[in-house]
Amino acid sequence: MEILRLFVIALMPNLKVLLITVLGSFLAMKRFDLLSETAISNMNTLVYFVFSPALACSSLASTMTLRGLITLWFMPFCIVLTVVVGTALGWLLVKITKVPYHLKGLVLGCCAVGNLGNLPLMVVPAICREKSNPFGDETVCYKNGMAYASLSLALASILVWSFAYNIVRIYSPKEICNEEKVDQITQNPTFASESEKKVIQYLKMLSKWSNLKLVFPPTLIGAVIGLIIGVVPQFRNLIVSGNAPLYVIQDSIIMIGNACLPAMTILVGANLLEGLKGDRVKFSLIFGIIIIRNIALPVLGVATVKGAVHFGFIHHDPLYEFVLLLQFALPPAVAISTSTQLFGSGKGECSIIMLATYSFAAVSLTLWCTFFIWLVL
Fold first, then answer.
1. Residue 33 has pLDDT above 50, yes or no
2. How far apart are CA 138 and CA 34, in angstroms?
3. CA proximity to 127, closest of 6, 261, 4, 305
4. What is the reported pTM?
5. Which of 42, 76, 174, 306 has its CA 20 to 30 A from that of 190?
């Protein structure tokens, strides 16, 4: 009966995510014509430039302090570990299944970075709100859970938009064409005049600045700003606290950021619909990503977190341990789908991969959450 109760607690948040995802699929159907290809592209742009940076900034500014950041040092280590191991396993999968060049970035990104932003922010607070939640007082659980999930979101934003995003970009045909154009411009005028050489140098400089801006995307900038506001007392008192003179700024950013999670989850549903229209990805590739993200990494997570508790690297906190374990068992980050939409590379294949991995995660994540809750109590 205890396991059944934990299963129900773990099931509810995943059902919420599933319902919003199904809504996105319905809205994208031609019968309703509410999420056309143009609308999906525009929503992806809004998520990338507006919603995601606002959510990262407001969440960190509200919940993170310098003391909390120091206390939670093991979370960045765990997230980086998932990325390193996931990338290594993804590279092996690419070699074994002989993935086409333009899909290598997509496969590596799906294996490397999980949905560290959306799912923890939806799963953890939802579990805390359950009447029979296993982590104690609802208010304390919710406050601490939001702090843990917000840090996870911020770290995910940094890794997704600086690592996975750029992996997809590097292997996209559009990026290859741009690099070839720059090379042609800079290499062809052999007998150029002095003024022409200055123009060529200026083009090279613009190319470097363009790549630099791609390394520091909007969500990463939002996360850094939110972190600075949260850990610097002067900024926190000026913007975040209830009596802060500029609290209206924080409140506005929170309102904008709140649109990120439903928007991204609806986009997942819309993109999943594309996965039903064709079969253009090897079964072995999909199976490999599922094994990496839903079996190999969760097992690694159990060994890492329980080992850290055993050797005293982190203090025993069931909720904190649960969030750490949850980060190892998540399906691929939905922002990878956004990246393929922005670059126009591997959109159909990404839809199929997302459809398969999220369909499997609907069951596996519930089972892992049940096991994780039982393990940490």
1. yes
2. 38
3. 6
4. 0.78
5. 174
Total Cβ atoms within 10 A of residue 112: 27
Chain segment 240-251, per-residue pLDDT in tens: 877 889 889 999
Print the SS3 string covering the chain: CHHHHHHHHHHHHHHHHHHHHHHHHHHCCCCCCCCCHHHHHHHHHHHHHHHHHHHHHHHHHHHCCHHHHHHCCHHHHHHHHHHHHHHHHHHHHHHHHCCCHHHHHHHHHHHHCECCCHHHHHHHHHHHHCCCCCCCCHHHHHHHHHHHHHHHHHHHHHHHHHHHHHHHHHHCHHHHHHHHHHHHHHHCCCCCCHHHHHHHHHHHHHHHHHHHHHHCCHHHHHHHHHHHHHHCHHHHHHHCCCCCCCHHHHHHHHHHHCCHHHHHHHHHHHHHHHHCCCCCCCHHHHHHHHHHHHHHHHHHHHHHHHHHHHCCCCCCCHHHHHHHHHCCCCCECHHHHHHHHHHCCCHHHHHHHHHHHHHHHHHHHHHHHHHHHHHHC
Cα separation, 352 vs 309, in Å, equals: 38
CB 151 within 8 A of CB 321: no
Can you say whether residue 66 is alpha, beta or left, with left for phi > 0 and alpha for psi between -120 and 50 degrees?
Answer: alpha
Single-letter code of the amino acid located at 119? L
Q: What's the full length of the chain, in residues?
A: 377
Long-range Cβ pairs for the range 306-312 (8 Å, 24+): 306/375, 308/74
pLDDT at 295 over 90: yes
Q: Which domains does the chain have, with CATH numbers?
A: 2-174+219-376 (1.20.1530.20)
As a whole number of angstroms, the distance between CA 37 and CA 298 comes to 35
* pLDDT classification of 185: cutoffs 50, 70, 90: very low
